[in-house]
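fyi for ur records
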Amino acid sequence: KIGKFPKRSVWINFDDMDQSIYKNAHPVLEKYNIPATGFVITGNVGAENFNNLNLITLKELKKMKKSGLWTFSSHTNNLHKLSKNKSMMVKTSNKNFVDDISKSNEYLKKHFNYDNESLAYPYGQIDQEKEKNLKKAGIKYGYVLEERPVEPGDDNYYIPRILVSDDAFHQIIQKWDGFKNE
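which gave:
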């Protein structure tokens, strides 16, 4: 959407929505009244040992949403898989892709009364063929894993996000104007 962000704003978002987010991040966000977005693999909500992660249950997602701090968007319905270092979302047919994203959008509408317009690409991967089909699936914004801040003029289907890690902190965040190491 067109608008301006406050100076030095940060958007906190989480992929996959595993139990560590519910147990660790959610209480801190509540304590400090910080909003966040969770990208949900809608066909695997509550799954145990999904890529070595235990995912948050629907009941927990609803509790998080009730806090007023969370919005949820799609991380696909069931295409969050990797084969030979390539996302299954990229490898699947265009029809399967559109069907999957439509199912994810339906899930978000049913459980959170939310018309989803965003997709965090699994493993940050997207190709031009799938990008052409995003509009058919109702998606207006796509998120990649690119180690840089969002800038005016960025393509709405290639919005960068910085993966938070010690390396990213030292190589990127500490270099931002105004950063103070206290």
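The mean pLDDT is 89. thats all i got for now
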